[in-house]
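hi! just following up on the protien thing from before. the input was this:
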Amino acid sequence: MSIDIQGVCPDRFAAVREAFAANFAEGRELGAAFAVRLDGEPVIDLRAGHADRARTRPFAEDTLTPVFSTTKAVAALVIARAVDEGLLDYEQTVASLWPEFAQAGKARLTVAEALSHQAGLSGLTEPMDPADWYDWDGVCARLGAMAPLWPPGEGSGYHPVTWGYLAGEIFHRATGRSLGRALAEDFAGPFGLDLWIGLPDAEHGRAAELQRPGAMPDLGPLTEAKRAAFLTPWASPGGRASADWRRAEIPSVNGHATAPALAKLMSLVACGGRLDGRQMLSPATLEALTRERTAGEDRVLPYRLSWAAGLTRTSAPGWPFGPGARSVGHYGWGGSCAFADPDARISGAYVLTRQSTELVGDARPLRLIEALYRSL
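and the predicted 3d structure came back as:
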């Protein structure tokens, strides 16, 4: 199959372009983009395919792709900026900002533990309408009152949707702003990032239409924590891809982005906290953001994971962000990802329109990342 690949890829990175083309030639892609920065400067910006299932819209330079849980990496960096400004401390308790959260044995949970998926609130257990996710205060009230599904602070269990409400409410109570507003005011606007948590109606026409996978991901043996996270009728917001979904601010799941914007934001981690020459995170904050907070078999995802304060850390050589021992990032449902390696000083992002069932380590971006490292 012939595929028209657009964008920039120097000869030095020819293996990356070949891997990108191979994903399409093998029928794995509908539309996708891959972007990389080296030392904070753009070096790769590839895109090809279509932005809709009917194949009527080309995947363009300004196509905005829903990136699902890759949004968590964006939110983690916005939170880190608030930590750097002294508005928030990873070691303070959530209840010190949000007193209602202390209910049902959660009083001692720290912000860092909440951001590393240790709150025991992987999903909401009481029945609700999926549309109730659009009631921010209502969801936060449920989380504040809910009894945790395992002892808080005793290891991770991935919080696919609830993480965004925990992180967002912590941030709002500490700063007086929503995470989506702070992203726009502190990063997207000043640094020209086409990156959104809460997509304005005027931008909806640029949003890609995704082809969803035909099956659920393999979660391994089912537990209460896994059912709450993924398998109840209300496990995720209703009307995904609707206008309500796009305009809502859910910092765990509904970010919209271009690959170059994600790669540029992640260069904060690759380049010692600097973005376009401006120091946005101090070395101390960057260390606190990226160091390991918990590691082991996750209670929800069928993987052994190492969690930082909202970012996934590379926990084995070559997985899930390449061979960099200090690499961090996040994957999103269906295959998107954003990553940074401070040793190689690279950052990158992959976005797509044909989703797979993989929750971490989709073969398509892994192929690109492997080719990238071979080219360095």
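The CA atoms of residues 64 and 357 lie 21 Å apart.
Residues 6-375 form a domain with the Beta-lactamase fold (CATH 3.40.710.10).
cheers
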